[in-house]
What we know:
Layout: E1 5-16, H1 19-26, H2 28-48, E2 52-56, E3 61-65, H3 68-89, E4 95-106, E5 111-112, H4 114-124, E6 132-133, H5 134-142, H6 144-152, H7 169-190, H8 201-220, H9 227-255, E7 257-266, E8 275-280, E9 283-297, E10 302-308, H10 330-341, E11 348-354, E12 363-367, H11 370-388, H12 418-427, H13 434-440, H14 442-449
Parallel strand pairs: 6-9, 10-11
Antiparallel strand pairs: 1-3, 1-4, 2-3, 4-5, 7-9, 8-9, 9-10, 11-12
Helix pairs in contact: 1-2, 2-3, 5-6, 7-8, 8-9, 13-14
Amino acid sequence: MHAERLDTLTVLFTDIVESTRLRTTLGERDAEDVLTRAEAVQANVIRSERGRIVKGLGDGILAVFPAADHALRAAGRLAARLDALAERVDVPIDARVGVSAGDVRETDDDVSGTPVIEAARLVAAHLDTRAASATALEQYLDCPHAYLVRHVLRVSRIDNPEELLRISPLERGSLVHDVLDRWLTQRIAEGAPRPDQPWPQDAVAALATLADAALDDAERRGVTGHRLLWSLDRARIAADLAEFVARDTERRRRHGLVPDVTELAFGFASGQPELEIAVGPARRLRVRGFVDRVDVAADGAVYVADYKTGRSSRYRDLADDPFGGGLRLQLPIYGLAARERHGGAPRVYAEYWFITHEGDGARIVHELTDEVHTRLREALRLVVDGISDGLFPMRPPDRPSYGYVRCEYCDPDGLGTTELRRTWERVRSDPALRDYVALVEPEAVTRTAAPVGAST
């Protein structure tokens, strides 16, 4: 009988999917060779990250790690190494991985406990095969540590509505988006006016009715904050929605546009298929999302709009660069999704449209050229490689933030990130981060590469 120990460990399950299909396609002998090599790849990665293989599971492995960061790095590296093996043998290898941490009962030849069950369920539920969102991919570029905490460990902030003084920016944005989605869906179904025609009065009245109903619902849900401040916010939101009609009329007239679809979903059950983007010779990234709105011009050009309800100053870096210095991927990705819907479009334009008084109706518009698509694929390759290699450094803002927290994952207590920023400035010289730093902080690479004795 083996002695049982209770320890805090991280459990990792792997599973090679559809091994039976491999045997049918390749034959028993060749398939067994591929699976044996895949098992060896997994074992090497697990051991290199201080993991202990508990047992083989036919087409997978059960392993435990002393710390979560080792298990997460192993999970990312497993995917990359198996992809590389698949390229060498020219056979698709679909591996799924589940990771969970907690108290584990351990013997010399087995483990049990809730983390073991949860890791197995993650594999069974195919959670690791979901398509990525543009927002998540952008978050990795902005701060890999924030991506790890939010999208891998699934840690999110807890809001207490009873402590709110006024409606949150997120709640306000959701309300406005929902009203405009329902309103424009109705208008498209009824037949939108020509580009040179304003919206008729019944359409204006319908928007006001939808706005009132949504504002009443926000009150009932208790997300509006203090009553006095809400009276001001409610009036401002209603005014913004009323002003939207005039802004939209001018936009349609200027570009000769007719609304085509609102809330274009891709990668969800209710929409078109997920978007697949090539990020290497044999690698494709699957992306999902919702495009707020797509319009079509008389010559077939497509305009993609993403509504913004905050200030445009945060997007100043997009004025001359659709990637905002390499950190913003949403517009190019949404433009590709619209191009999938309109395969013969001669041109595709994507824009952030600041539709409230805070943004003063500003629009940042970029044409999605072949050069933009090439840059997008390169940025996505960097993200995929970074995640696969387990690179999740903390990259705090380069300037102190006064009055608000710019990254709640780097600064959860709101006390500032000065020391963390200094740590990042030391860490970023690591050769493993060179490509990432070259994209998001190219000036840092330039300084590092300056010849000895050069003036600074």
